[in-house]
Amino acid sequence: MRREIITAVILFLLSYAILYLLSFILHSWESPFYFLLPVPGFFLAYIFSSKIENFLQYRNPYVYAIGILILGIIAYYINLHWYYYNMYYLMIGRNPQLEKLGMNFGIYLYGGKLENGQYFNGIGFDFFNHLKNEPFIVFLLSAVLGYAAYKFKPKLISRL
Q1: Cβ atoms of 142 and 41 closer than 8 Å
Q2: DSSP track, 33-101
Q3: Do 148 and 73 touch, CB atoms closer than 8 A?
C-alpha cells in the first residue's frame, strides 16, 4: 500500500511538471485555479480508471485516452453553447430590435469571418481559442495524464 501511494505521488508530480511546461505553449497560469485544477483531474482519472476498464471490458489504452479528450471537448462545447445561447436569448428578450437588426448566435471553430469576408454579427466566439485559454484544458490534460499514470503504475512499482 505504501509503494502505491509513493508511486501515485511521484507520477502526479511528474504529470504536474509536464502540465506546467505545457502552460508556456498553451497559456500562462495566471490564477491559483490553474495550479489547483490538475489535482482532481489527475486523481479522479487515476483512481477510477480500473473501474471504468472493468465496466467497459475494453483494454486498449489509446482508445481511453483519446475518448477522454474527445468526450471532454464535446462536453465543453455543449456547456458553452448552452451558456452563450442563454445570454443571446436574454438579450433578444430584453431588446427585440436586436433580432430585426440581424443579431444572431453562433459558435465558430476558428476566426470570426463568414464566407463573404464579413465578421460575425452577434454573440459568438472562437471555440478552440476559448478552449486553449480556459482552465478546463488543464483539467482535461491532467485526466489524460492520470490515466497514463494508472497504466504506467505497475512498471514503476516493480522498480521501487
Answers
A1: yes
A2: HHHHTHHHHHHHHHHHHHHHHHHHT---HHHHHHHHHHHHHHHHHHHHHHHHHHHHHHHHHH-THHHHT
A3: no
- Helix (H) or strand (E) run with residue 146 in it: helix 136-159
Q: How is residue 112 annotated by DSSP?
A: S
Query: Which pLDDT does position 99 carry in this prediction?
Result: 65
pTM greater than 0.70 (yes/no): yes
- Dig out the grid coordinates for 67 from the structure: 475518448
The string of pLDDT tens digits covering residues 28-62 is: 777 777 888 899 999 999 999 888 888 888 878 88
β partners of residue 107: 125
CA–CA separation, 31 vs 130, rounded Å? 16
The position carrying cell 489509446 is 62
Q: Is 12 helix (H, G, I), strand (E, B) or coil?
A: helix
